[in-house]
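Our collaborator T.R. sent over the components below with a one-line note: 'Predict the complex.' Nothing else. No constraints on interfaces, no templates requested, no preferences about which chain binds where. So this is a plain run: every listed entity goes in together, and whatever single assembly comes back becomes the starting point for the next discussion.
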Amino acid sequence: MSLEGIGITCERDRRMLFENLDFQVSDGEILRIEGSNGSGKTTLLRIICGLFHSYDGDIKWQGKPISDDFAGYVDQLLYIGHAGGVKESLSPEENLSWLASLQDQEVSQKNIWEALAQVGLWGYEDVLCGSLSAGQKKRVNLARLFLIKAKLWLLDEPFSSIDVDGVKNLEVQIEQHLDGGGIVMLTSHQLLNINHAVRSLLLGY
Amino acid sequence: MSLEGIGITCERDRRMLFENLDFQVSDGEILRIEGSNGSGKTTLLRIICGLFHSYDGDIKWQGKPISDDFAGYVDQLLYIGHAGGVKESLSPEENLSWLASLQDQEVSQKNIWEALAQVGLWGYEDVLCGSLSAGQKKRVNLARLFLIKAKLWLLDEPFSSIDVDGVKNLEVQIEQHLDGGGIVMLTSHQLLNINHAVRSLLLGY
Amino acid sequence: MKFGNMKPHRRRRLYVVLFLVVTSSAAVGLTLMALNENINLFYSPQQIASGEAPVGKTIRAGGVVVPGSLRRDESSLLIEFDISDLKTAPLRVAYTGILPDLFREGQGIVALGKVNQQGIFVAEEVLAKHDENYMPPEVAAAIAAAHGESE
Amino acid sequence: MHNIFFATVRRDLKIAYRNSSDLLNPLAFFFIVVTLFPLGISPSPQVLSGLAPGVLWVAALLATLLSVDGLFKSDYEDGSLEQILISPQPLFMVVLGKVVGHWLVTGFPLTLLTPVLAVMLFLPVDGIIALELTLLIGTPILSLIGAIGAGLTVGLKRGGLLISVLILPLYVPVLILGTLAVQAGVDGQSFAGHLLWMGSLLVMGLGLAPLATAAGLRISASS
Amino acid sequence: MHNIFFATVRRDLKIAYRNSSDLLNPLAFFFIVVTLFPLGISPSPQVLSGLAPGVLWVAALLATLLSVDGLFKSDYEDGSLEQILISPQPLFMVVLGKVVGHWLVTGFPLTLLTPVLAVMLFLPVDGIIALELTLLIGTPILSLIGAIGAGLTVGLKRGGLLISVLILPLYVPVLILGTLAVQAGVDGQSFAGHLLWMGSLLVMGLGLAPLATAAGLRISASS
Amino acid sequence: MGRVWSLFHKFASPKWFYEISGKLLPWFVAMTGLVLCTGVVWGLAYAPPDYQQGNAFRIMYIHVPASILAESSYMMMALAGAVGLIWKIKLADLALKTAAPLGASLTFLSIATGAIWGKPIWGTWWVWDARLTSMLVLLFLFVGVIALRSAMENKEAAGKACAILALVGLVNIPIIKMSVEWWFTLHQPSSFKLTEKPAMPPEMWIPLLIMVVGYYSAFATAWMMRIRVEILEQENRTQWVRDRVRTA
Ligand code: HEM
Ligand SMILES: Nc1ncnc2c1ncn2[C@@H]1O[C@H](COP(=O)(O)OP(=O)(O)OP(=O)(O)O)[C@@H](O)[C@H]1O
Ligand SMILES: Nc1ncnc2c1ncn2[C@@H]1O[C@H](COP(=O)(O)OP(=O)(O)OP(=O)(O)O)[C@@H](O)[C@H]1O
Ligand SMILES: [Mg+2]
Ligand SMILES: [Mg+2]
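Returned assembly:
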């Protein structure tokens, strides 16, 4: 299986972000989108998710344009964006439980607690997310990587606001996902320390 | 001149964040607040700014509690928090102009353009901030470091979302501020590469 | 304006205080003026008689029911009576409906309605106004008796 | 599938319960708006009982309108909406769940509260019965239509009042049917016809409004 | 010093102008709410002219109320409010600037629009004059009082309707004075007393409301 | 001076209040019971009927004290708020918090009994006049304070915010008080004036006075009890509360 971008061209506010961009990631591969601020990394990820439509070119999943079978595509997709999708007036547990049912996956309370423990939020299951720190909120969101099964991970700056230990932990999880044949695309201004070859896609010169 | 914290104790949601914390930073010194996610770094900075009141202990500026002459204290303070203070429907120039008059400083359009150029936003002066990328918004906010004169800088994760070049540029500016006798307190999960001794204040545990 | 070599933020605060002083004294002045004006939707029989009250608009009127003025229509619920403020000529009130229990001649009432062309107050609602005087029936009887004697 | 419907209703009720003001405020707003009219217009029972159907319906309409505005807003702001849009679950069901949740915390309690206010406005008992029945059928329609507006305006920074401009015209038929029914009730006439019309609006809304809302969400959230 | 006052007014006007919906929506809302009444109650000119003062005032009040809710919200969300709180400039002046800006984009255009609506509701000319005068004095009071509520609720996730619960009771005197004045105007009587009362409320509000708002902001934003 | 203040703060400490109120409470309960019983029996059974209203006037013994208490409880609440804002005393905030629901219930009681009384006497449950309307506004203000508190998560901030709201709402109190003088209302003017003797005989107003005292004392009792509960909840991690709970 593979994700392909063919001749992606996108222009916002009369600035050409990228032109005729091609890329391909297959099972067990990771692609890091690089570029300075405003070069279009987030835009590209949102295009791949089908959340942004003003572009030219084709995004293909398993060789077919994603719009052909969008529901089948997103079934295998996990996107973690700048904004978290974490409700301030729900607890981490409640948040994850709903996010899981959104992905149509049955998870037990035990699964959720384990995922939370993995991101270092053991003991915070029942605190409302509104009273978590910036990094802790982000961790609730990242706990989905430990909870929900999906083949393709699209991560927009997953390490921002996360402390050093947290970053290490995430890197390990990414490695495991790749080992299991998963596909990862991510943006990050920080370096990535994993024992896999990290290919780069450079935006905006 | 110096900023001192004496016996600062703060508890949130029944978790003790720090107890009897003492610190002191004087002219030309930089103090980095370290700690894992949720250890209370943001809380401490907000306490020092006078934006959070549920704590015990004293924050002193020039030997006097800050509440004695709060207006005189904040006159010399520049705080850059998680949230930017950048209005989406104003252009970077308009944003900075208002933020400067809030600090009671006269700045000309030329000053503002220079500051924006310094943070790599040359050519974006008139774009509305709503259509900037995450990192670009942050840069608008950081441009204040180049525009507004203040002795004491309190920076909450100034490098998050900023690309590698941007980080370098900021580090240079911090160095210059210290050379000029300024005081800096910051939090960051990334390492800091500057040619000054960086003292650390460790939170948590 | 310069206030000596005052620190800037002290000077700023002074402006705020000055502003507060100006606004609060203006408020006091306006209130004093306002107290001299009447703002009410209530009219006494005298005001209605002198034509102060608008004709054909819903207003409130009130007064004491003039003893002996009450007339009931045989065939309908129409009731007519006079109210007065004991100073000027009484005002004729017409009302169709059920009167409150406390409606008596010599008792205060408040009526909501319109003055018609003939100068009659056509009420849509009659409420019994009750004053601040309470007394046991014996005392009331005694007072009434005393009143009757002295007259 | 219906899983996600119930999960969404449950989640939204939970959130409303946590921000308990979410639960009480539409009610309080309704109550206070209604009390403004006797103060502003006339305290006369005769006048008020004439106004009552209109005032109560308009207030119910405004309370729904203003609360529906937040229906997707917080989901948009915290990124939940993106997750909803790229979930394999049918958007229709999620939207329906959110609308039902919204009705349970606004329209429904509002219907329960109305008799008290109707008495304060001197509405006769027959009118109150008609009012209750029309509100019971009408408020879910209001939530459904409101959701369309909320979906279309969610991406805007401050859609707060834009939504009223979009949605209020669509509320007009409901308002007219509702007040006519109450008027008929007051006059001792049958209002079955009005109720049937409203019922047909409701089932139509149940089918179509979530579709329109889903389409609106897709558009306004992906730009 | 007054610098910051004008800078703030200018900034808020600019923002309102950019989100042009900010400028138009309160007006549109006002317009639509007013038009709901002929639909919901009765189209008869006689009835409407009786309702007009009350309906127009209530609508003006709701439009102000709903727009004032956002007065500090976006500043809070994007961190501007923190910067305001730790600026050496007096908070009083910034708040006053924001309130004045708010009035300029809601209360003032609303006052200008009212005559059109008043004519549509068959309000006599004398009443229109009284209405305009009271709105001119009254709408700034509404903005000032509303700011207090906005300041107190700004830290809350969805203060949207809570603010109405806090503020509408305080609007009652303005509403009563305003409608009584219009009524007096319609009846051809003097309404100078009403205007004087409103004027005194206004100057009092100018001094005190920003103080209370500033205190509220300090509290709700530093928690 | 500083010494005086520190003493003041000490006396306003929750612990001190808890202990003192614990001692006072039985006396208050006893007094409340005694006074209220006397007042109720005298007022409802022995006071003479009114020459016009007959026995209906007896609602006065419930309505009037409830109304007076509703107003004073708002004033006390605002006062507590001011004290809390100025001197930052925890106890004042607890007082504000607990006064709001009590005040709201009293206001509701006043309106309800007034309405019940109004039906036979005036001929209507409700009129939109100045006294009644300003009383409804008072109810809204109480509800507002309660709603604001429940909406804010940070307790300390909630206390201060409610204090400000309570102070702003204070403008309503003179309006309630003077409404019957300034405007024409259906509601009667005061029967009791400071300068004149009451417009009713002693066998009517003495039980009323007793009822007022009884309401005040009941209010004080309820207030104290609720503050005590709040103190235990809020200070539940301090040593003295733990000791107390353990011995209990
Ligand atoms: C819903 C209706 C009513 C409300 C909201 C209401 C409200 C009040 C209030 C706030 C007070 C306290 C005044 C003060 O502190 O000076 C009061 C006192 C009183 N009310 Fe009412 N009232 C209502 C109906 C009535 C009715 C129907 C009657 C009797 C006909 C009545 C008789 C009295 C009396 C005798 C007092 C004591 C006056 C005094 O201070 O001497 N009220 N009421
Ligand atoms: N609004 C709030 N209400 C209650 N508790 C809060 C609130 N915000 C933060 N906290 C708690 O305070 C603690 C410290 O939060 P703070 O934001 O200071 O952490 P931080 O060190 O800045 O973390 P990060 O690295 O994630 O930014 C956290 O444990 C959090 O649970
Ligand atoms: N909502 C928007 N409307 C119009 N243009 C936008 C919008 N958001 C972003 N842009 C423009 O698109 C460009 C790319 O933005 P994008 O968010 O994709 O950058 P990025 O690479 O993710 O940057 P960062 O590292 O700062 O997150 C930017 O130049 C920005 O000006
Ligand atoms: Mg980005
Ligand atoms: Mg932080």
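Summary for T.R.: Chain B has a mean pLDDT of 90.
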